Amino acid sequence: MKKLGILAVIVVAAVAFTSCSFGKYVNNTANVNENQTQVVLSQANYKIVKNVSTQVLYTQKFKFDSKQLQQSAYNALREEAALKGSQALINVTFEEINQTNFNLLGIPKSCKQAILVSGTVIEFTK
C-alpha cells in the first residue's frame, strides 16, 4: 500500500510539472513604409476614413522570425484596409504576444505567437 501511495505522488508530481509556459508581450510602433514617400500632415488637407486592425496567430514547434511575422501581419492589414485612390495607411502599431511551452527538461515543446496590428486610413482631400 505504501508503494502505491508513493507511486501516486510521483505520478501527480510528474503530471503537474510536465509543461511550463513562458510568455512575453511586446508593444511597439514600427515604420514599415521605409521605401515609400513620407507624408507630411501639416495642413488640414485630409480626412480620417477609418481605423483598421487585424490579428495573425501562429503555432509552431520552434521560435519565429519576428520581422517576417510582422511583415505578414502588415500585409494582412493592407488587405483589410483596401486602400483606394488617394488613401494612405498611417500610425501603424504592432503588438506581439509570445508564449513558449517547455517540457520537464526545459526543452521548448511549442511556440505560439500572435501579432496584432492596427492603423488609421486617411484620404487626402486636396
What's the end-to-end separation, in Å? 86 Å
Strand order of the largest sheet: 1-3-4-2
Amount of beta strand: over 45%
The helix tally amounts to: 2
User: Which residue ranges are poorly predicted, with pLDDT under 50 across at least 5 consecutive positions?
Assistant: none
What's the structural domain tally?
1
* Portion of residues within helices: 10-25%
Strand tally, please?
4
What does the overall shape look like?
A: rod-shaped
| Biggest sheet overview | 4 strands, antiparallel
Residue-averaged pLDDT: 76
Radius of gyration: 23 Å
Sequence of secondary-structure elements = HEEHEE
Instruction: Provide the structure class.
Output: alpha+beta
Q: How would you describe what is shown here?
A:
The protein is of the alpha+beta class. It has one domain (20-124). 25% of the residues lie in helices and 46% in strands. It has 2 helices and 4 strands; from the N terminus they run H-E-E-H-E-E. A 4-stranded antiparallel sheet has the order 1-3-4-2, with helices on one face. Strand 3 and strand 4 (108-124) form a beta hairpin. The protein is rod-shaped. The model has no long low-confidence stretch (mean pLDDT 76).
SSE diagram, text form:
Elements: H1 2-16, E1 20-29, E2 46-60, H2 66-81, E3 87-102, E4 108-124
Antiparallel strand pairs: 1-3, 2-4, 3-4
